[in-house]
Amino acid sequence: MKVKTGQPPEINLNPVHISKADGTAIELASIIDTEAVQSLINDFYRLVHIPMALFDLKGNVLVSAGWQDICTKFHRVNPETCKYCIESDQKLSLNVAPGKYKLYKCRNNIWDVVTPIMVEGQHIGNIFSGQFLFEDEPLDYELFRSQARKYGFNEEEYIKALEKIPRLSREDIDTGMAFFMTFANMISQLSYSNIKLSQSLAERDAVVEALQESEKREKARSDELAAVLDAVPVAVYTTHDPQALKITGNRLSCKWLRIPPGTNLSKSALEGEKPEFFKLFKDGVEIPPEKMPSQLSAAGIEVNDCELDIVSADGRIRHVLGNARPLRDENGNLRGSISAFIDITERKRVEEALRKSEEHLRLLSDNLPDSAVYQYTLDPDGSGCFQYVSAGIERLIGLNSRDILNDPSILYRIIPSQYMGELIEAGVRSAHELSDFDMELPVELPDGRLKWIRLNSRPRRLPEGRTIWDGVLTDITRLKRAEEVLRESESCRKVAEAVDTERRRFFDVLETLPVMIALLTPDHRIAFANRPFREMFGNSGNRHCFEHCFRNNEPCDSCKAYKILETGQPYHWEITTPEGRVFDTYNLPFIDVDGSRMTLEMDIDITERKAAEEMLRDSEEKYRNIVETANEIILITDNEAVINYANSKLVDMLEYPLDEVIGKPIWGFISKECIPAVRQNLEKRRQGISESYELKLIRKDGSPVWTFLNAKPLFDRNGSFTGVMSMLTDISKRKEAEEALANIETARKKEIHHRIKNNLQVISSLLDLQADQFKNREDIKDMEVLSAFRESQDLSLIHI
């Protein structure tokens, strides 16, 4: 590509330093009259036949004249050659000094010439002249024919367009560019006034627009503030003068007092204008006007966290909490105040109810017979302390609750050292698993006596990571002594163990039920209450049911629980508690393992179904724990024999982690020789047939394990086969014993066979010896033969 730089004519090169109001670069299209310029260059082209055009820096053509067909119909139409045109125009026009021009041949092999247009020292566009060939240059037809072929142009039409290109002398170009450079400078100079005027008008419009926008924003802010004041759940009071003669409130403040908006609320108003529809009290004493928050802040005093009671004319009391701040003008002089208060009536009511509830609970916990209530906290860093210990602890173990709260170690010091490890281990396990903490251990009282206590608590974890146990410490010394007495004789020990085991088993079952269960003695005492019952009513402490559940001093008149003691028949009824909770109650006759008669009461809370569902989920979790802790493999497969569920026993037995079992077909865990039988049995499951049989499985290390399988088919509500639930018991030891017995039987049979064979051989030999004495004898008597046989028999017995 050839480039030539032309010499400038005598023109004014002093830049005019003008900038747009927003500081952005000036666009060429914004400072020229394209229609007037287009008319001018059309006339110029008709005069000198030199093509020209005005381009901005983005390559956009603003005006043009004399463009040749080779460019408009070919080069500017093809994407690649058009790219060359724009690239040549943009890159080759760079770094051309003002008042100079650059002559270059574009990448499409056509001559062009360019001179820059400068405004306020900025390069904003270019004047191009081009699409010509020099008359002193031979026309390279082969070059342009190759271009036509390369870019897919019609070769004949392309050459015709080429031959129409003007052929100019270099003097023509110099003369034309002198005009174009003068024209470019004229555009720069003549645009000065327009740009300046445009900037002035733009600045004026910007100022006017800014003022209008400011007024709009101020009005919008005012409207927004008014809307906010009416929308917020806060009573806002505005004092309009330093003397607090006029105070108005927002919508909520007027609603509190049932007055129209705009009513003057100032107790400092002039006589005859003071409001009489409310009074302000603090700590039960009426507040004089000069001590009211709005008046104090109007005098320049900030008021913070002020609690007041607003007493309306109808006697209604509203507890409020708020702040007040002075308002000052631009000179810092006081002009009023603003105060905001929130209604804390409900909060005060709840706080009072909570205080009474806590006091009631504290009284209950402090007076539990043989028990004390505690709360223990363990921080994430491992440090722990007691948050609460009821006063009953001193009756139990001789330590003051305040001393334990100040120094928990005094409680640990009365625990024998051999139990500390177990205590710490149980605490760590409970914290890790969030499982109940339940432990019995002895303590050495300060007076030297030994007592047995039971610690029973349930942990919960707070969001910040702290773990809190709420529990009960119970004196079980008498129980331990009774157990010791029972252990004095073997028969009593067995009876006690059987009773305790049976009762515990029964109680454990009751603990897992998602309903409230209680055992009531004939004198109305709660002998046992399961977990849901305790969660609803708390630990009974062996109190009467009417005391513990209904806070009565004598049996309830409406109680029907004890009808079964008269009739011996179950009874079903509903109980409504004083709090409004309704229970579906079933009373059943019950004989304890020791023969004592009781009433088993089952209560189902039908007030809150969600609570019942939660209890049901807890029950399901316990059943899952039973499955997970079962001594057999429990397995559920789908209708394609893919394992959907397996308990942890499978991990213990086959040594596969669960993630390598769940979702896998059963065939990879079954001995190859058993697979055909299992496939056949699987077809029986599809037919609804349950079955039990022996099955050999393969451990992960390849070793076999024999199991006894109980399989039950599973079907959905539509009767479609969905899979199989199987329980597999490890019978490897039994199989080993059977194999050993079989080996012993085989050996025993071999030994008997050997002995019989030897004895028969001996008898045969003896008979042969006896037969020798009868050889060559014609007269043989029966007695002689019999005698010989008996002699052989005797000899054979001697051999045996």
From TrEMBL:
UniProt keywords, alphabetically: Kinase, Phosphoprotein, Transferase
SMART domains registered for this protein in UniProt: PAC, PAS
PROSITE patterns per the UniProt record, alphabetical: PAC (PS50113), PAS (PS50112)
Catalytic activity: ATP + protein L-histidine = ADP + protein N-phospho-L-histidine
Record domain PAC: where: 304-356, 437-488, 691-743
GO MF: protein histidine kinase activity
Superkingdom of the organism of origin: Archaea
Cross-referenced InterPro entries: PAC, PAS, PAS-assoc_C, PAS-like_dom_sf, PAS_fold, PocR_dom, Sensor_kinase/Photoreceptor, Sig_transdc_His_kin_sub2_dim/P
Record domain PAS: where: 619-684
Protein name: histidine kinase
Species annotation: Methanosarcina mazei
Lineage of the organism: Archaea, Methanobacteriati, Methanobacteriota, Stenosarchaea group, Methanomicrobia
